User: Fold this.
Amino acid sequence: MLPFLLRTKVFALSLLLCSSSIYVASGESCGCSSLVIPVHVDVLIPKDPADPFGGLKSNASNLRRLDETYGVFGVFCQPNIVSPKSADAIQLLVHGFSYSNQYWSPPTEEFRNHSYTGFACNRGLSSLAIDLVGVGLSTRPVNASDVQYATNAAAVSQLAVTSRLLEGAQSPFDGFILTGELIVEPGAPIPGPATTARDDTPLRWGDLDPDYVTTSNRSMFYPLDPTSFSPRMLTFDNFTKDVGSLATGLQVGATSLRTHYTGPVAKVVGSEDQLFCAGTGRCADVAVLTAAERFLWREARSFDVFVAQGSGHDLNLDFFAEGPFNTFVDLVEQFTGV
Assistant:
């Protein structure tokens, strides 16, 4: 999974205003509305989408300009009773590869305990969970090569600015919480076997550019122990999976470049994460892991790594979700001072 960005009172938590359809995310404590925000993206992206650094280290001659406006779909959830202390704090929730905004709140009563948006509402925090460009109900460019690392980075940044204007906060991102993410080698492939989406599910994606891909094996996102999650959740996961661009998958190493961000940063990973931790010993010593991961965030005001015991890659979707949820909320309150 990717971030979630915090903002202040935008946060990024390891993601418009058109319809007014309202539903309840958790009990009667939370009202949610589906939204679409037009986001203008004007960035330079690699002419070769296989560029592992997403253009961040490319020469100008190897770049092309992408100047487009996309509609970014999201679900905004707010407690029915908002504390004055947390009124200007919004969590911007960004999903990971082959997921959509539904990762943050599976839209079925059976899985209400896996809804982070509902959990956060119960703790008095608002959130905006989005579909990245190319995913779900957001604009999906005809050419998958337009959906690159820089494309969605620009879209999320513009969205944060828009959100600030909507709710009045003046500060930038207050902090970053990255979930299911550790340093990877530049050019590392998408975790697990990537499948051309139109071949995987022709009835749904048969007309897509072949460089839109998905994953057929969803079990890698869960702990190896099958008693750690509901088999019905895995079925639901397969049914609701989405796509990503091949370029974004190839550019996963771009997230392992040093940043000059000066705010607080935290990473939360599962001890049974098959992509990063399970069977590697990498996550056994949290102090050593934290020191290694901090290398890319040297200027951050604070940096911490949390290893959620028993959890897999998809921290939200197994039986241990409440532990990470508490960690997320504690970090949001710490970073924003609410």
About this structure: Helices lie at 116-122, 149-167, 197-200, 202-205, 231-240, 246-250, 286-294, 322-336. Residues 4-336 form a domain with the Rossmann fold fold (CATH 3.40.50.1820). Residues 149-167 form the longest helix (19 residues). The mean pLDDT is 87.
